[in-house]
Amino acid sequence: MKKIIYYVATSIDGFIAGPDDDISGFIAAGDGVNKYLEDLKDFTTVIMGRKTYEFGYKYGLKPGQPAYPHMQHYIFSETLKFENQSDQLTLCDLDLDIIKELKEASETDIYLCGGGQFAGWLLKNELIDVLKIKMNPLVLGDGIPLFGTYKKTLKLKLTESKAYNDGLTINNYDILY
C-alpha cells in the first residue's frame, strides 16, 4: 500500500499561509525549493481539497486543469464543477473509502498538496503516513494552520532533516498513530 505524504511549506509557528492566504513571506527560490520541485517528480498522484485547488487560480491555474502536468489529480469537493475538465482531474466526495482505494491503486506514494482543513481530516482518520515540512524561517502569527482545526497530540519520528542555504529546512517525519 502506498503512503500519503503531506509535503508542505510552513512557518515556524505552524501556518501554511498567513491571513488572506498570504504566502509572500515563504521562500520561493533556492536549493530547498529546488529539492522540493525535484521530489515532486517522484509522485504520479496528488490529492487536495477544494480551497487548495482554487488557490492555484491566483497563480495561473485554469479551472478544471491539472496543477501538476505529470500527476493524476483527485480534488475532494462536493461543490466544484467544471465546464472543461481535464482527464487528469477527478472530482471526489470526501469519502474515506476513496482515499483507501487510492492508497491501494496508486503507482507511487501520494502527494497531499495542502490544505490545512483537508489534512486535518486525513490526520484525524489516520491516513497521513509521512509529514515533510518545508520549514520557513518566518513567524506568521495567524493564518491557515497546518492541520486546520484538528487538535490532537501525536508523536512523530524524525527520519531526515536537511538545512538549505536559502533558509529552508526540510524535515521528514513518520507519524506514529
TrEMBL record:
It comes from the Bacteria. One of its GO terms (biological process) is riboflavin biosynthetic process. It holds the Pfam family RibD_C. Residues 3-169 form the Bacterial bifunctional deaminase-reductase C-terminal domain. One of its GO terms (molecular function) is 5-amino-6-(5-phosphoribosylamino)uracil reductase activity. InterPro entries: DHFR-like_dom_sf (IPR024072), RibDG_C (IPR002734), Riboflavin_Biosynth_HTPR (IPR050765). Gene3D superfamilies: Dihydrofolate Reductase, subunit A. This is Dihydrofolate reductase. It comes from Kriegella aquimaris.
